[in-house]
Amino acid sequence: MRLGSSLCVGALFTLATASRSIPNVTITNSTTSIYQLSSDSEFAFVLETFLSFANGGGAATGEILRAASQIKPGDMESFYREFKYLADQIADQATSVNATRFPVSAREAHLRASSYYRAADFFLHGNASDPRIQTLWDSVLDHYDTAMKLLPDPPEQVELDGTEFKIPIYFYSPPKSSHANATSGQGKRLPTILIGSGYDEAQQDTYHQLGKEILARGWNFVTYEGPGQPTVRRQSNIGFIPDWWNVVTPVVDWLRTRDDVDTDRIALGGISFGGQLAPLAATREHRLAAVLAIDGMLDLHERTLQQFPASIQKLYQSGNKTAFDAIVWEAYKKTTDTSQIWGIDQGLWSFKTSSPFEWMTKMNKMAINQTMLDNITCPVFVASGQDDHIAPGQPERMARMLGDKAYYHLFKNNVGAGEHCAIGAEPQLAMATMDWLDEVFESPTSRS
User: Fold this and answer.
1) I need a surface site. Which of 7, 178, 300, 383 has the fewest CB within 10 A?
2) With contact defined as beta carbons under 8 Å apart, do 444 and 417 qualify?
3) In this structure, how many other beta carbons lie within 10 angstroms of the beta carbon of residue 437?
């Protein structure tokens, strides 16, 4: 999901920045979503994102369009109210169904209700003490987990121990009928795809984005969250950490103990900011067969800092926390732009700080450089969107820096896939990434 608004803080100072020129690649970097569901550009993007979940059963087109028609542009409380109303209505439908007799009807309604409670929460993080942040999340989990129990093959849910936090896991096994598509076969060790979310996305969302596609190919599908992400940020009260391998390595350790996982064919993927987190983890975790960076990102901090005027950049680089915070907060209080407001709200919440200076500093500690990329020992799929405005040029830089280890893929506008993380074109995303993974898995050089 979108982390791009966190990059719009430079607009508080009315700075215009040019996109990178990437040879042989046309990157448009428009900040306008493909389908305008609101005159508010931030709302339009978020609505487009939740609409895209319909591809994987996490939303229904008419339901999203109805909510969009009622939301007042620029009114974050309106966004909350309309999605809370929709979520409650669909939740009532879900709970009224005889789940024993009609498990599919109940499951699908619970999944949509879960997504809509997520949407209701999206713009509330400016007040970290708002009780709705937790109560809505409780509803997200309640309906999602109820839906999962109604699957023919329910996922396992476990919590692993991190350094100072718990790592929530969903482990999905493919339907038995899909095992024929996997080279390991039924009852054997299967290729396993571990997918992490990003800056504001929940692991539940990834089931609708790629999960069903992975399972249909007869592979295991696993999701997790770490500090700064929805579950861990709430339950362990910890923001993003720079040593992301300390989140991924315990998961890989656990996967390698299972008799249904082919330990030579474990791939790690990351979506949105996860496109930085996954390669970051792979700089230290060397038991992976492949990495998916969707979209590839090297340094969110760099991209954010570039959007500030030179004088503000120098102020930040001088280490004057008090002055930097003061000027950012002054601009924040004057703006009515939802993308700017949400960008700072979500950044501070997910990194667990009340200081813009500390937020920037913590982001800086997560940057990936050439030396770190040199430590990655497996192939990396580097995705880029032709209209991806998040960190333009960074996927291309990552691919060049990785050299022969990189496989670069540009998702294009002319087939509706050019948005950030190919939002709305999930079948194209799955086709490109999963077909590449299948080839990597079958390559003799990937089997150690």
Assistant:
1) 178
2) no
3) 24
Tokens of 194: 């571990």
DSSP 16: -
- Short-list 287, 280, 208, 209, CA closest to 247: 280
DSSP 144-176: HHHHHHTSSSPPEEEEEE-SSSEEEEEEEPPPG
pLDDT digits (tens, 9 = 90+) for 180-212: 455 444 569 999 999 999 999 999 999 999 999
Binning pLDDT at 50, 70 and 90, where does residue 309 land? Answer: confident
Helix (H) or strand (E) holding 143: helix 132-149
Amino acid 307 reads Q
Cα-trace Rg, the chain = 21
Residue range 230-239: mean pLDDT, rounded: 97
Alpha-carbon span 272 to 233, nearest angstrom: 18
| Dist CA 438 CA 43 (whole Å) | 37
Residues 184 and 325: their CA atoms lie apart, in Å, by 55
**Superfamily of structural domain 1-31+153-448:** Alpha/Beta hydrolase fold, catalytic domain (3.40.50.1820)
Contact status, residue 316 vs residue 305, Cβ threshold 8 Å: yes
Contact between 409 and 432 under an 8 Å Cβ cutoff? The reply is yes
For the chain, the domains span 1-31+153-448, 36-151
Rounded Cα gap, residues 40 and 125, in angstroms: 19
Contacts of 340 (CB under 8 A, 6+ apart): 5, 8, 9, 11, 12, 332
CA 83, CA 85: separation in Å to the nearest integer?
A: 5
Domain 36-151 in CATH 3.40.50.920: no
